[in-house]
């Protein structure tokens, strides 16, 4: 009986404690009155941009981008680049591989052998464009305003908002490359390749640092990029696949791969056969197209790519090809 009374008394004390410490989360705040204050705070935040400490970084990225375009255009005159006629696949080499990864058009069969044509600059350096804003914290672009704003490279827009000087950095005149590349020696070509690879690393490293300070968004479905606080309202997403969404983008935080896509390609190693075949695809390595292009022109590849490229990996055994031929 005494134990039962103690337990009842304990429950009463516990109930009083919960009642005393309970809180009411109902709020009577009028958010319509807070809206002007929030908008004013956002406008005042724009006074802190561009961040002066990031201006040299943005200028370095813009200059490195120009060197990167010029270097790739020059190396493509020396190293052959092939692109698939029916899909975005790219290969660096004299002969295209025979790996059956072509998914072609919608009505074309999947997992077919690629049909190769000469590649161009955009096959190596994938273009990513975005709307050019008046400032970082301007209002959202409406769907009916989509033609009132220019489309510019996303990296250029990011650097412009970060305070970089666009004189000579906006245009892609460097895409013509260096003249007289046929007369260059192997040492000179290796020097250009190493400089191009350094520019590639400088662009990606600088964009990664800028994204820590300046906001950028990417759509989850169509990879549309918007450099700004919030994504735009232009209904351009999924013209064919996502009709039920009425073209509305689903935004998330962008990364460096969204603004500077690496464009992964099959990388042929010295121990591989002259033409990569589908039977040995489990043994072959990969690399970003820029890295593979520069390495075939004599550049020293950073060690962080060795695992992806499988430099020390084994080559496909001969019995795999004999089994298929038999």
Automatic annotation (TrEMBL):
It holds the Pfam family APO_RNA-bind. Residues 83-168, 218-303 form the APO domain. Transmembrane segments: none annotated. It comes from the Eukaryota. InterPro entries: APO_dom. One of its GO terms (molecular function) is RNA binding. This is APO protein 4, mitochondrial. The gene is APO4.
